[in-house]
Amino acid sequence: MDYDLTRLGWREFEHLSQALAKCVLGPGVAVFGDGKDGGREAAFTGAVPYPNELQPWDGYGVIQAKFKLRSQGVSSGTEWLERQIEAEFKAWLHPDSKRGQMPEYLVFTTNVPLSPIPETGGIARVDRLISSYAQNPRVTLKGWAVWHGDEICRFLDIHDGVRRAFAHFITPGDVLSRLLTTVSDADAETAELIRAHAGRELLSDQWVRLGQAGARTEDQKTRLGPVAVDLRANFEQRETRPQVERAPIYQAEPGSYATRVAAYVLERGDTVLRPSRYTSTEARNVVLIGGPGQGKSTLGQLICQAYRVALLDKEGEHLLTVEARAVLHSLRRDFRAIGLQPPQGRRWPIRIALNQYANAILGGEDISLLRFLADRVGHRSSVPVTSIHIKRWLRTWPCLLVLDGLDEVVSHQTREEVMSRISDFLLEARQIDADLLVVATTRPQGYKGEFHTGDYETLTLTPMPDDDALHYAERLSAARHHDDPEMRETVMERVRTAIYEEGTTRLMRSPLQVTIMSLLVERRARLPQNRYELFDAYYDTIYAREVDKPGVTGQLLADHRLQIDWLHQHVGLLLQTRAARSEELDAVIEVDELREHIRQRLHEETEDQEEAESLAGSLLEAATDRLVLLVAPNAGYIGFEVRSLQEYMAARALISGPEADILPRLESLAPSHSWRNTWMLAAAGIFTHRPHLRSDLINALRSVDSRDAVTLILTPGAQLALDLLDDDFTRHHPRFHNLLVEYAATLVGRPPRSDLLLHTARTLTSAAERHEQARIRVEYAIRDALSARDARLLTALGVLTFLARAQGAGNSWARRLLATTTQRLKANERAAAAVLSSQYLSGMIPDLPSPSFSVQSESNLAQHLRDRLPDGVPSEPPLQRFLSALERHPVQHFQVEDTILPIVEPSIPLDTDGARAATGHPQAIEACVNVINDQQLTTWQITMTFTQLLDLLAYPSLLPPGDLGVTGIS
User: Is the dihedral of CA 903, 909, 914, 920 positive or negative?
Assistant: First the structure.
């Protein structure tokens, strides 16, 4: 059988060549990873049974792979290969060559087919070329071989294991139809089930969830393809440039790289990830982190569709419906339009909403993720799909699994159970040598690194640059107004104005924001100035649009605006509260329950039972069928399809009612990660609609942090001040901007925290550049922390470094102060600062030694905590489990210059079952507080680690108890 070797790419062709070399030449072949290899992909020393056992090669041999990206005929391929081989011999013979020993045996592998014609064919020409070099007295060749494209195909026929591992690249044509000939033990029934599932998902995933954001035309939903864009994301904890062929790489500063998510994931999938063949030290999976409305879920949808288009090859189109073929053709065109290249490796994609899986677990089902996958694949299938089918397919064919929305699993206990079952599934997949790529998504709020850094590479979505926002707006406008070029141009002209105006540019940094702004500029002259105003204007716009329409429903909406507003706020707050308290994970409410809530509300107002009953159904129908913020994702249920809109409505509810209740309500919610976005929207709502409460809101942040010893350490209020500065809705209010800067700058006077240091530095640097009074406040906080000569000095150094690196004469003070400070550091301060700079700041702090870590001794976290327990050695099981977990967390004591520094092993997660056993336990919390308060400069990393533990253990006690006290809603 002939195989399609052109899809492999140079890296996977090297891996294929290495695998075949081990099969053909024997297990003694040593393979080399990516990077400089001294002119070799593999090598051997000694006897190998080639060309046969009777005439074995015996000596030092090298295997080199030569991959031609595009084949342009046999003749041109031969000439290209001759040039490649000549270049290799010249490199070996160069007087300054550093390649080392000249091989005695040489194998060139190539995807180029060579003609077998005697004398003039490619095989003969290449053989003569190598033979001519072999005559050189400096060349020690005793034997050579060229494994060209046709010969590699014959090797693949023989070596089943290699063929199976690379089948998703090399299978030509309709891969699902040819599966039985490519992989001998594949199950035909399973292949057909997978084809049917891919076809169904191709159709169901063709729509984007933008109807409720105004992207829905009067009678048509919006397709993913015409509005799809690939978004930028930063690599986290990567100091070297990613080695990629096709995905773009951007570098903002040394040690900081970004890429396009879909292109990068598709290229990551163009690697054989079977545990038996994956030799790279890099994480094989990806976790995508992004804020509300940044497009995480849509990117997962886009990546899955790209794999379905590749899997449902042109030769197999005749097996699809006319509708599915039309979607397939359309997506191919749309992907070409945005420059998204199709994956070379055809993986079977499946996407799982983690809150749905969590609900299945909470519903009492003892369901593994494998079984849940089978149920999902079997949905709407005429044939039952079992775990055996899925497991067989995982063993047979490479797969992509998208785990979407970990942040929507709010309960720590449920999240832990979900992650445990994901781990069980991944372990089972490894045991069957599955070629599995996992892409997980989550918001940053409340994310504790559940997707382990050793297994997952972290990508963090960035705010959309102006060019990206314009590109997306253009595609969206073309899709919405494809038959009205004048309106399309009007919208784009206004969008361009909005992007370049200071007041609105920050409101166009996510796909959701650009979508809403594009709708607003169709109808409004004045544009919103903060996120709350953005959602407010959107809601008012679509409400006015529906009221203006003739008919009974338009009149109903006009007459009952207060009730409709209450309905949306009620559902938003109710669902947000339930999710935060983990009563329910799905953002939905039963229709009958909601109708009863509306009826009770109307009965209180009208005191007419019959009228309330009749009107409740009409209002619910008008809200769901015409305003489309509320939708029915499943029969009998109602919810917000876009979570940001649910949070906006919940925020409206939070700032409603008696003013005396508003700030205490917000103060009680301030420490909660799951309420963070809602809280921020509510704060913006206060600045918009209740300006007399602005000062009180900022004072409330201080009250949050002074509640007790725990909040004094965790400072949720100061962190909210940072977030409020990032949202920038105080830009027209310098007094309040400076008050926020003053309180956010108190974080400079805290020991360093890995989750806050960069955020604090970047935000305060930006704020200080805007107002001189803000700069003075930041400078004062830095000088005060530097004078402390303890761990606070390190945080101040980090922030000061960012300020000193910022452009502009206004930061000359920071450059002078940084130079003076680093020169005056004592030995222990230099050592501690050097570790901070190398581990968390990519070596940004100048004039410090590069730490040469020398381990002097080892301990564990429990040793740092045990003596601080109030009653000595614990007898309670939760505390014993807690200490046992900390005993398994090593601490290495390094000597940096002349100073000993304890450093916690970063690759082991703190969020374990044992650690969580002490959640809410007062003795464990008090002990962590004692460790933190006893901090010293050289133990700053111990302090940082126990601050993370404190956040884990004390979090439930910081949440609001009982009712939020929203009149008519709770």
Answer: positive
Cβ atoms 673, 581 nearer than 8 A: no
The alpha carbon of residue 194 and the mean position of all alpha carbons in its chain are separated, in whole angstroms, by 27
List of residues 6+ apart from 908 with CB closer than 8 A: 888, 889, 890
Count CB neighbours of 143 within 10 A. Answer: 17
Query: d(Cα 864, Cα 874) in Å, to the nearest integer?
Result: 15
φ, ψ dihedrals at 928, nearest 5°: -60, -40
Which tokens hold the place of 640?
């917000």
CB-based contacts of 945: which residues, under 8 Å, 6+ apart?
861, 904, 910
Relative orientation angle of helices 531-547 and 552-559, to the nearest 10 degrees: 130
The 3-class secondary structure across 27-93, one letter per residue, is CCCEECCCCCCCCCCEEEEEEEEEEECCEEEEEEEEEEEECCCCCCCHHHHHHHHHHHHHHHHHHHH
The region that residue 379 occupies, defined by phi over 0 for left and psi between -120 and 50 for alpha, beta otherwise, is: beta
Q: What pLDDT is recorded for position 462?
A: 94
User: Angle, nearest 10°, between helix axes 757-770 and 716-727?
Assistant: 50
Per-residue pLDDT for 236 more than 50?
Answer: yes
Reported as a pLDDT band with limits 50, 70 and 90, residue 648 is very high
Residue 629, strand partner residues: none
CA angle, 904 as apex, 899 and 907 as ends, to 5°? 140
Cis peptide before 51 (omega within 30 of 0): yes
Report CA Rg, the chain. Answer: 31
Give CA torsion, residues 187, 192, 193, 198, to 10 deg.
130
Q: Please state, in angstroms and rounded to a whole number, the distance separating the CA atoms of residues 437 and 884.
A: 33
The kind and range of the H/E element at 775 are: helix 772-786
**DSSP letter (8 states) at residue 223:** B
Q: Quick check: pTM over 0.85?
A: no
Of 91-100, 412-421, 602-611, 651-660, where does the model show the most confidence? 651-660
Strand ranges in 299-347 using DSSP code E only, listed in sequence order:
none
